[in-house]
Input
Amino acid sequence: MVSASENVVGSGEVGGGSRRLYCDNAATSFPKPAEVLQAMVHYATEIGASAGRGGYAEAQASAAVLKTCRERLNTLFNGENPQHFIFALNCTDALNLAIKGILQPGDHAVTTWMDHNSVLRPYNALASEGGISYTHVAVDPVTCVVDPTEIRKAIRPNTKLIAVVHGSNVTGTVQPIREIGKIAREAGIPFLVDAAQTAGHVPIDVQADCVDLLAFPGHKGLMGPLGTGALYIRPGLEGTLRPLRHGGTGSVSEQDVQPEFMPDKFEAGSHNGIGLAGLSAGVEWILKRTVASLWQHDQMLCKAFMSGVEGVEGLQYFGPQGIRNRMGVFSVRVRGMEPGKLAEVLENEFGILTRAGLHCAPLAHTHLGTVGSGGTTRLSFGPFLNVPDIEYVANALSAVALREFAAA
Ligand SMILES: Cc1ncc(COP(=O)(O)O)c(C=O)c1O
Output
């Protein structure tokens, strides 16, 4: 998928010459494609101006960067209209706009046990401040897949939002969003998908998947820089969504109320032009390779990992134990070892960078039974990792587990 020379972290040397293998792509992707960095440098050195804030050539060039970025996102997710992609700071920001923009006091909302704090906390904040109620739908004990019929059963007459995390940032479980989307559409309830882990990794078609609101970061699978993200709002739904921020848009300045048209209704204040130039280049990088082939690459890495750790005494990974409903996010435990200690050993002895803890998903860890014992150690893959890298990771984990087993 990606040539070895592109894999500057996986096979490269950093610092004092020791190997650094970045396996924390669920937090943010690294490295970024060279094209992303070039686009950001070009923006910073040749454009500089703020989009929509002037008629001179540089301000127009900045507006063109944003326009192209929206068009590419619209192509990537098969949206109906590029103007319906609202730029945000990150996926959390996009989720907040969707959740707080839709829900009103007295409403009921649905989510799952696998959802992230960026859904759970806005729900809880609204529950305590504004009096909404919500239901967490249970998931399969092993695979952590939600049964769409359980979502249907959770719907009440006052249900106004169904939010589901597409790919779990804890177990790598991929939820059946198309089936859930059909249920939500039949019931006339807006369906919000948290695509923090799947955007750019797993194919998403907002029209075929019946997604009304798609929240995603620009800085993970879309290969853009930190500080970028977006919310797709299905045409027709923008009228029922309240903006969270009000302010200047560079448009209809004679008017002291927020414009009603897209995307200005939801985009107050100056844009992150440099970041969006990088995001646009990241999306172009993905479109050239296609999500289908990046997805195939991810599945290949998953298979290499699962076969590399199969049958190793004292080593366990959570979520789907095969390729079905899974992506390249693995939570592991080594018997008798604190997850934080395992992360430390992986970094210090093998140069493998992981994230230990609860990964901002306390209910998912409650479900797995890992909440009171430090969570898990998470490894998350990206397009710049290759099969030999994953074999190296699996060998390192196996060696640590066998060493612990022998010492026990
Ligand atoms: C499932 C999930 N949802 C939401 C988020 C929040 O994304 P961001 O860091 O872009 O705010 C994350 C971040 O890791 C995540 O894994």
